[in-house]
Amino acid sequence: MEKTFYITTPIYYVNASPHIGHAYTTIVADVLARYHRLSGHRTFFLTGTDEHGDKIAEAAEKNGISPKAYADRISSQFRNLWPELSVSNDYFIRTTDANHIATVQAILSKVYEAGDIYFGHYEGFYCVGCERFYTEKELIDGKCPDHQMEPEFRKESNYFFKMSKYQDWLISHIKANPDFIRPERYRNEVLAFLREPLEDLCISRPKSRLAWGISLPFDANYVTYVWFDALINYITGLGYPDGENFHTFWPVAQHLIAKDILKPHGIYWPTMLKAAGIEPYRHLNVHGYWNVDQSKMSKSLGNVIRPLDLKDKYGLDAFRYYLLREMVFGLDSSFSEEGFVQRVNADLANDLGNLVSRVTAMAVKYCKGSVPAASSEADTILSSTAVRVIQEVEASFRELTFHKALMSIWDLINTANRYIVEKEPWNLAKDPANQGTLDDVIYSLLETLRIVSVLIAPFMPGSSVKIMTSLGIANPELQNFDMIRTWGGLAAGQTLERGEALFPRIDYKPDEGAAEIKATPPPPPIKPEVSYEDFEKIDLRVARILEAEAVPKSAKLLKLKIDIGEERTIIAGVAKDYTPDQLVGKSIVIVANLKPAKLMGIESRGMLLATDATAGGITVLAFDREPITGSKVR
To answer: Which among 3, 175, 247, 299 is annotated as catalytic?
Structure first.
């Protein structure tokens, strides 16, 4: 039986330009779509824009243009943004599209003819920002909980959908299908709401007040309420009712939304589907907010982070990685540019980027620039870790725990980095008799990179292709999850290619004028001149850090075991800027002939070189190419 997968984003309201919240939801959908394609699923990915209603009419009037012209302008911003973020949607839908208008009117007619729509009178508290009526109990201190403004009190005659008729059915369906709404906290939130009697849903607006919308097929004096219009996009995009895509993908439909639109998707939409005789979607997947300064990101609050600003400044894959790694799906997360840089430097520059650079450099140097032939016996440390990690990643995708998937992948990356330190290929290379062992070590590391390149493909497609290209893989687009289940897929003899650093380390500099900015101090004065003979007395050496650990009772010091051709211990005051794991395996520069000194009772035989003149704190001196351990620095 063919495996299928259908994922949707909410269609974004065109009253404002895209921000990081829109980007997060869409990139999550893209990651899911890419993962399922890599896993052999026939996949359909839908996104688009929601273009009717009060807010659009208001925004258009403020801009002095028609609602359609305004919707065209903002919708194009969303459509043009997604390719820049490597979003691989199959269809971009607009609620002003002719096929969508026809579908909405067909559903309205069907529900009306079944007797589930009636004409009546309504009065209540209406929030223009949310385009919905609130009960007094839903307001917080008399204000809309999202927009923090008092809603208008309105009295109108309108058409109503008999949503209350389907309350018992919806409760039963949610309880019979525990993962219908997930994570569980949002399922419980919907069930809590359903403990109170469900009111019927007002589904029209009089054209005397609002003309910008889809006309009701049974009363031309009214337009359709924006939610009864927008939600139907999920079946319009599949060609409801007779399209092949509808029959193929709707049974596996998964919606992806932020928690502020839980009620329309968790209550309005399934009852609308039931009334129209359509089976409900399979899953509603709900995520939290990105907060800035402890507040939900929104245009009205003036705290919007624009995705292209970050993508252009720091790189696309770094941006995608941060969003998926930093937020626990379902919970809120706080955005910080400084935190962004720290995450990218630690995980991408230090761990992944360093691994790719070191392994390809050693393979080019020690194996004549091609994948070596390895013995038939797989390396059990790396191969067994890879098997476990693949299983964990697949489980994380089923559970939507994307941060855990990335943590598992980084477990494999860090295992490979430790493997380099343990096997010391640079020492093996010193004796030609070790070439067979050296080939096995290098092959194991290259094969690990192949597996990592596929595992990160849903999250960082550009970096995935770069790693595959460096490994000599001719058709990166043909790689999939089945190809990494068996160790040894990398063919001997493939030509390796050393590319540019995947993720150069970022020097974080807050924007000028920010509150935390401090004036840049002048550089320290140059010390008195010394003769070359005096300089020659200082013995600077390349040292490889073998082990690192905190010094007890010190917040500043780390104890480092290093190799400079001999093993020795040094104490370094870098604990506030580096964790021990970040230093192990790194090549640094030390003063090798400094007189020994005791620090916290530990003898230190040497001193590492570093600078503290960076925005991110202390940075140790390192190399852009793999140096020979113990060699002189001059």
So the answer is: 299
Determine whether 202 is an active site residue. no
Name the catalytic one among 144, 311, 423, 559: 144
Calpha distance 502→465 (Å, rounded): 11
- Give me the catalytic one of 127, 202, 274, 559: 127
List average pLDDT for each run of 10 residues in the chain, which is 634 residues long: 94 89 96 98 98 91 94 95 96 98 98 97 80 78 83 89 98 98 97 95 94 97 96 98 97 97 97 98 96 59 71 93 95 89 93 94 93 80 96 97 97 96 94 94 96 98 96 92 94 88 84 34 54 78 85 82 86 80 81 85 86 64 74 82
Residue 215, both tokens:
């006309």
Does residue 127 have an active-site annotation?
yes
**561-608, pLDDT tens digit by residue?**
888 878 889 888 888 777 776 787 788 888 888 888 888 778 889 888
Q: CA separation (Å) from 313 to 291, 360, 512?
A: 21, 27, 15
What does the alpha-carbon distance between residue 209 and residue 219 come to, in Å, rounded to a whole number?
A: 15
Torsion of CA 328, 334, 337, 343, to 10 degrees: -30
Q: Is residue 367 among the annotated active site residues?
A: no
The yes-or-no answer on residue 130 being catalytic is: yes
Question: Does the active-site annotation cover 147?
Answer: yes
Asked if 130 contacts 146 with a C-beta cutoff of 8 angstroms, the reply is yes
Q: Is 586 a catalytic residue?
A: no
Q: What is the pTM of this model?
A: 0.78
